[in-house]
Design brief:
Length: 409
Amino acid sequence: MNQNYWKIFANKLFLLFFFTAYLFYNPVTSNAVKLTSQNVDMTLASNELVIINFYADWCRFSGILTPIFDEAAAKVSELYPDSGKVVLGKVDCDSETSIASRFQITKYPTIKVLINGQPAKREYRGKRSVEAFVSFVQKQLEDPIQEVANLFSAADVKSRVVIGYFENKESQEYQIFRKVATNLKDDCLFYAGIGETFRAMHPPNETIIEFRPDRASPKSEHHTFTGNSADYDSLNIWATDNCLPLVREITFENAEEITEEGLPFLLFFYHPDDLESIKLFKEIVGTHLVQEKQRVNFLTADGVKFAHPLQHLGKRHTDLPVVVIDSFKHMYQFPAKSDHRNHEHLKAFIDDLYSGKLHREYHLGPQEISAIEIVHGNNQPAEQTMPPESTFKKLAPSKNRYTLLKEEL
């Protein structure tokens, strides 16, 4: 056989291998893509959005969901036929135990959302219908960046903002900015000023990216990105640090997600007309209590919207601001003699939680001098408190949300 034959044969073999590999990582199927230890990493790395149904064949609820999820996958494939955009996948947790363990699956079915290869903070907990899944995908793939016509259109907002000034949308810097915005669109608003109107905001052919805090944050939190704007990792780390602040606002929408993190809450209940008190609280925490972030979640809460927990404490909106620790067993109120504007008093409050002082006094009454009393220089025992049961633990996600674990049957 001549050389040309072998060249043609080799080329065909290469094309066959390439096509087979392409189908392996981008399967054309009317059903959800079956993910295994062989293809899961490549699937995550090569798609902007991946939604995974973790199921078990013995689970009745998994069996109910499977045809619905497969039909949704077919509709999503029709809407987004281009590879690299979105994949709806499924994992058999009995046969792919390493993947189930990697994603800490404890209930079936569980639906995880991954953006640019990284797990989203929230599992999918929406309605389990074809329409709901398709709508969710469309929402996730909306452009995360709002283009602004002038500086003022992004100035007066309640949310945290990241704004970039670019020469054009085709630049590598803009594409990196969009990828980061996709990751963090639930935590920050992303704006872009493009072209001639914003050229005065940045030197020629140079991108400027800035972070602006919400109105309830101190101006000291306003930052400009100083790294390489074409470097995804450095921009993503910087934006994450700013968009996920040390002190977060808890809402009914994110309470379950924050509860799932497992740290006790140090809650600052405020009146919505009193933004200055929030600014002061954030400054105190950011200046003096950063090292405590491994022990508690620092949270602000609208005391009017969250009136129910305050009622358990015997408090009303006229008593705001109110500081509380919620341990997921009890809510402990900040001592009346302490000052929430004093970082030492706040630190002592956290210390008393972890020393067991707050819990012991709940059950046995005051027995020893607390850290708070030491801060006050007061050797008199604290008044016995009877903290109410936690209300926020009711917002925690169930370990067995949809069905029992196999070993519990």
